[in-house]
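Re: the request from the purification team.
They wanted to know what the chain is likely to look like in 3D before they choose a buffer screen. I agreed to run a prediction and write the result into the notebook, where they can find it.
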Amino acid sequence: MADKIWLLWMILGAILLIGEMLTVGFFLLWFSVGAFLAGAIALLGLSRFWQLLVFVVVSGVLFAISRKFAEKVTSSQPLGIGANRILGKEGIVLEEINNSQNTGKVRIDQDEWRADSDDGSIIPPGKRVKIIRVKGAHLVVEVIKESTEQKGE
């Protein structure tokens, strides 16, 4: 068993790698790398002390570095993710919104989206709307009242 300890490290590394694929974030990946390197140290014939030391140090250093990188990357990301990033934005109706006929399209910035009316009313093309929620692949919108629209439109 003592000469096969490298195999246990490799199995542990594989299990951690599979676990990483099944979870969100880069948490188990670094422990997987540490286990694979400890297995390589075991193949070289170094003692269990060195194997464990390599596992702990490599995993810990990679984990610490990745946390700083992840914080830097995520702090520059916009707050909304995916379709939720457009909640509260205004857009223009391109195709009549009619929930009962499943029609309706709006433009938000440069993107076109399928849309539904929040209250079930029919909204004609050209009306300004506000996105109040996302339902599946459709935006749910409400008409912006005339008093809040800019004069001269």
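For the purification team: The chain has three helices and five strands.
Please add any questions underneath this entry.
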